[in-house]
Amino acid sequence: AYWENGYQTLMPAVGKAIFVPGWQMRGERPVELEELSQAVNHYTENNLSLVYGPACPVVCIDIDDKDNAYDLERLTFENLGPTPLISVGNWPKRKLLYRKAPGHKFLTRRFQPIVEVFGSSGQTVLEGLHPGTQRPYSWVEASPATLPLAELPEITMAHMALFERALLRWMQHNGMTHSERPGAFGKAASPMSGPVGDMLAQMRMERLSTKTPQEFIACI
């Protein structure tokens, strides 16, 4: 149902980690229906992940702060508009999904420790059992199985710029960042500036965010 509705960069995962070598390329090329059918029959006990990249039509706002989840959802809605696709794994944390506007390139950014924006790389689990709670991932309203991609709210880079500026101001107001530059990943940011600094900070935070040896290996 995900595939038929347009969410086609899919991969199986163990817990939160994808174990298939070269899984990042799924974000470059959607899965073929025949390949997906074989995976569904083989990986019956695994979670289902959505891999982000140029081929993925979705941007995900991953709210990872339990104490401020509702405020951050409201901030997201104020700047990007509401979305019917809200995924919950460990309540009240949640993932908010939006559709990429054609021709716009969205970057993956980490605003530690509260929000991750997935656009150009990375993956998130949307179906299966959460490894921490051992409860199923759920959807507050619609899910990709019931909502075609064309009906998902569309956002542009201009929308994202507004959201990132608002998020940074919120983080500064709440003492969560020392950086003046959006996308610098909060207090855990690399002191370097520019895209190289962003990349190094992102790589470091990805490693630090792993919870198991399997996740660490998958991250590396």
Could you characterize the architecture of this molecule?
- 28% of the residues lie in helices and 19% in strands.
- It is an alpha+beta fold.
- Helix 2 (69-80) runs antiparallel to helix 3.
- Residues 179-185 and 187-194 have low confidence and may be disordered.
What is the topology?
Blueprint: E1 10-13, H1 33-42, E2 47-51, E3 58-63, H2 69-80, E4 86-88, E5 94-100, E6 109-111, E7 115-118, E8 123-127, E9 138-139, E10 154-155, H3 157-173, H4 194-208, H5 213-219
Parallel strand pairs: 5-10
Antiparallel strand pairs: 1-2, 2-8, 3-5, 3-7, 4-5, 4-9, 6-7
Helix pairs in contact: 2-3
Return the structural class: alpha+beta
Mean pLDDT: 86
| Helix fraction bin | 25-40%
Distance between the termini: 31 Å
- E-strand count: 10
In short:
With 220 residues, the protein is α+β, with helices and mostly antiparallel strands. Helices cover 28% and strands 19% of the residues.
Describe the structure using short key phrases:
single chain, 220 residues, alpha+beta, seven-stranded mixed sheet, three-stranded antiparallel sheet, 5 helices
